[in-house]
Amino acid sequence: MSGPVKKKNKTVHPEATYESLLRIFTVPESENSTLGKIEKQISENLDGFLKEHIVSHVIAPNELEKGFLDSQIPEEPTFVSEQADFLLKNVVAESVHVASPRFIGHMTSALPYFMLPLSKMMIALNQNLVKIETSKAFTPLERQVLGMLHRLIYNRNQPFYEENIQYSGSALGAFCSDGTIANLTSLWVAINRLFRPQQDFAGIGEEGLFAAMQHYGYQGAAILVSRRGHYSLKKAANLLGIGRRNLISIPTDTNNKIIVSELVETIQRCKKQRIAIIAVVGIAGTTETGSVDPLDELANICEAHDIHFHVDAAWGGPTLFSKKYKHLLKGIERADSVTFDAHKQLYVPMGAGMALFKDHKSLTLVAHYAEYIIRKGSRDLGRMTLEGSRPGMAMLVHSGLRIMGRKGYELLIDGGIEKARTFAAMIKNTEDFELISEPELNLLTYRFVPADVRRFMATCSKEELFNINAHLNRLTITIQKEQRDRGTSFVSRTALEPARFHGQLINVFRVVLANPLTQIPHLEEILIEQREIARRLLSGELAMDYSEQDEGEPRKAVTQTS
User: Is the pLDDT of residue 508 over 90?
Assistant: First the structure.
């Protein structure tokens, strides 16, 4: 594929040959080669994109979709340069700038810049961690990373790790693509532990859920978690065959933590009804408010009732790096399993989750084999993972842990938590913003409430309060959409039921302060912009949004004239 030939202003591609295709699979000889120049162009464009402070380009999703309607696969190959140009103009330019210091609405952040060249190394090697024959050194590397994070959580003695970290008969955890798969893996182990083989019963893995219920004499099965539990747990309940209705939500207190007395009552009720409890799930950093359940108390309850205790620490797990704040996760070391997402607060690219297990034999409950690839007694990690083929993401986690170290992660965690507390104090000190949830980790929620309305709410009746909150909900939604569409900053929104509002659903701004590039002046600017949008809405200069559009649809704001 030497180059395009132009005929009458039309580019004509040469016919593909096997030899020309082979050149695509070889390393460019120099930076001056065609592929070398393309790689340099892409790097320079990405570098420019990552340095900009614009969160998103103002273009409606339905307009974007028009460029992606063709379903025909090209008959002849397209030049790499053309495809690169297409991606830069139509994908990179229209991507969400999650590295921006003003993008504080989701759990995605700027990455350490060393992750880019190391990711290239990982992709070029294209290892498959299902089998040591397709991964070699990556297999012990992944085991080492699992051991490092197991030690961060459980802190067993040195001889334990020397014996088990590379022993083929042990598994300290399972690498997977995200927290959803990690939660599912942990609950998969839990249900196999609950309905393990016994006498003439071969176990749930062999005989299925119905046979397990009959053998053990249960009328149903359930998973218990607070109402702030991640939606991935509903997927797990569905996939495990117990049904989403049997993911039982336990009420939360004013601090968005599970109410322990309600949990105990639910356990007792399940026992009376012969409902098997697969697991109790504690949360170390809820996605909506960043709250941490009383993990030590949950561990006591699970030990007393012999229930698998799982902690979803996909977000909050790295708090363990902080000497100052790790006490917030006290009790996590007693969990039977823990979900940990590296692509959140370990700052690696998307696609790295882990399920860690206190007992190094837990994963043998779900071990599976195939003669052609995964044989008994092998060192292959794929025999104890839900996913088969997996990339070598452990290399990036390993690099982060070594390059930044415990101290580096401690500084990032401490900085995020303290920044959230500073922002909360800023909100409290204003007349027109109301803090809804105090930050325990580095998340908080708040809303805009005009000063005169706040004064009136302090004395109004319950019915009046309900009506005012309904209007404020619409105001919050409209401000968030307008700010998102402007494209200079982004906060997300959610709906909570704070006790002080008598169970009424309250729309709030949700802020995640994990990006180390975000500084206090950025937060001040975001409040100024929200206040200015609110002023224009309340004055009638902008129209309030009363539509029920999907989250991804653009808000059709109308500029009104007096």
Answer: yes
